[in-house]
């Protein structure tokens, strides 16, 4: 049985002023007052979900809510306070410093001394530095506050380990289109908090268009609906009004944030998996979100060397040409050249042999230090150097029958015989591999007095 909601008390909220209900934005007026009013997040809020059962029983703990904008983090934090019969105290890491943090904690200490609970909600908690985050630790440990942090960034990267060890991280998802449509419908017909008192009319297809434009962000969807209502003609939100309101439709994309790195990772791995359609999708998705095309050009150049290498050397040339074309043409014309390069990278033969060989060579250099260059490979521009044996015994490959000095050692003595580059049987590297195997056989023969292959 669900716990009866406590009698609401005035919340101390440093995030917003106590403005009259009518002046609040639609998104704030439609904020659910109970868990049943929440949309989406079924992993946490389904009737049998452990999180919901604990919340309804008034059992709360410090937590971090991680999810995209408009998915319900602030609303859920408020509900945590209501179901815990606790005061809701809110600060924003964007607007607050250490002084505001101390002020909020002091208020919580007063309530704690009175035997009362406080839920301290910190919006954009990842923007606090380490010192500011550390200020919460003793108060969490003593039970003075139940900390609820909200963040759009990966807590593993943005929050220090001491704070994370005292909080449970809950992941919230972007809302599905159907969930947003349901919430818009409710706002459209709710006469107490929504737009129902205005007798507005909007067809189902219009609600769907707004939900699509919101891209998983309910707050954005409600804002778009409210703007549409303000521009409505005689209470009817028509196609022309929607076209005007939804003209600027940007997908979720945070430059330098979690979504940014997730998407560039998806692009790189789609190229590596030889999936041109997925590669083109993620490339276009990043452009659509506002990613700098030159950043994509740099990453694609890296892909050409790391994942294609000598299996198809043309990939690097084509990518550099696309980069140059974009710098000459700019957007949007130059973007097509980059798209051409993305598709070519995806369909090209793949090999990371060069990437692995370079890494192996670097590793051996770190392990073996400064090994001497063999004497016969050293340059001898002076008489003294020649007298010391520099360049003595060097064989000029072009003068030999195979064009290769088969018995000439080029590695330092300590590394003689080591192999770093191992070409694969794909693309041009298949021919390179065949050539290297032929040279290896000839070198073995050159080292045998009889000219025969050594016993296996």
Measured by DSSP, the beta-strand proportion falls in 5-15%
CATH fold annotation of the domain at 12-171: Rossmann fold
State the distance separating the first and last CA atoms. 78 Å
What is the residue-averaged pLDDT? 86
Order of helices and strands: EHHHEHEHEHHEHHEHHHHHHHHHHHH
Q: Tell me the number of strands.
A: 6
CATH superfamily of the domain at 12-171: P-loop containing nucleotide triphosphate hydrolases
SS class: alpha/beta
CATH architecture of the domain at 12-171: 3-Layer(aba) Sandwich
Model regions low in confidence, pLDDT < 50 over at least 5 residues: 1-17
Main sheet characteristics = 6 strands, parallel
Number of helices: 21
Question: What percent of the residues sit in helical stretches (DSSP H or I)?
Answer: 40-55%
Widest β-sheet, arrangement of strands:
1-3-4-5-2-6
Radius of gyration: 33 Å
**CATH class categorisation of the domain at 12-171:** Alpha Beta
What sort of overall outline do the alpha carbons produce when their principal axes are compared? elongated
């Amino acid at each position: 049985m669900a716990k009866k909601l406590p009698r609401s008390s005035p919340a101390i909220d440093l995030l917003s002023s106590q403005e009259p209900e009518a002046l609040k934005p639609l998104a704030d007026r439609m904020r659910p007052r109970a868990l049943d009013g929440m949309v989406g997040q079924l992993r946490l809020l389904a009737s049998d979900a452990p999180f919901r059962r604990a919340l309804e029983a008034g059992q709360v703990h410090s937590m971090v809510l991680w999810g995209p904008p408009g998915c319900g983090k602030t609303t859920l934090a408020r509900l945590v306070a209501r179901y815990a019969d606790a005061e809701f105290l809110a600060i924003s890491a964007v607007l607050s410093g250490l002084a505001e943090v101390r002020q909020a904690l002091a208020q919580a200490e007063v309530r704690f001394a009175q035997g009362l609970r406080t839920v301290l909600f910190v919006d954009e908690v990842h923007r606090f530095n380490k010192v500011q985050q550390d200020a919460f630790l003793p108060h969490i440990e003593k039970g003075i506050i139940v900390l609820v942090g909200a963040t759009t960034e990966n807590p593993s990267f943005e929050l220090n380990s001491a704070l994370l060890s005292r909080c449970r991280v809950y992941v919230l998802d972007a809302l599905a289109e159907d969930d947003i449509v349901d919430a818009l419908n409710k706002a459209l017909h709710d006469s107490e908090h929504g737009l129902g008192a205005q007798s507005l009319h909007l067809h189902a297809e219009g609600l769907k268009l707004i939900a699509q434009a919101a891209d998983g962000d309910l707050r954005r969807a409600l804002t778009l609906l409210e703007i549409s209502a303000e521009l409505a003609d005689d209470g009817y939100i028509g196609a022309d009004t929607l076209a005007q309101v939804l003209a600027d439709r940007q997908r979720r994309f945070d430059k330098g944030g979690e979504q940014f790195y997730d998407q560039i990772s998806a692009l790189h791995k789609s190229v590596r998996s030889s999936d041109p359609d997925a590669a083109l999708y993620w490339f276009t998705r990043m452009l659509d979100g506002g990613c700098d095309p030159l950043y994509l050009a740099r990453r694609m150049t890296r892909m050409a060397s790391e994942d294609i290498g000598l299996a198809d050397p043309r990939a690097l040339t084509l990518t550099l040409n696309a980069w140059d074309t974009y710098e000459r043409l700019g957007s949007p014309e130059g973007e097509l050249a980059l798209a051409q390069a993305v598709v070519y990278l995806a369909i090209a033969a793949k090999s990371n042999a060069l990437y692995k060989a370079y890494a192996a060579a670097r590793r051996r250099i770190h392990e073996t230090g400064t090994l001497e260059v063999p004497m016969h490979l050293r340059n001898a521009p002076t008489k003294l150097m020649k007298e010391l044996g520099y360049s003595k015994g060097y064989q000029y490959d072009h003068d030999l029958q195979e064009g290769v000095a088969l018995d000439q050692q080029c590695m330092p003595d300590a590394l003689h015989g080591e192999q770093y580059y191992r070409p694969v049987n794909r693309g041009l590297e298949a021919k390179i591999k065949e050539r290297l195997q032929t040279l290896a056989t000839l070198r073995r023969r050159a080292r045998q007095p009889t000219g025969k292959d050594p016993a296996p």
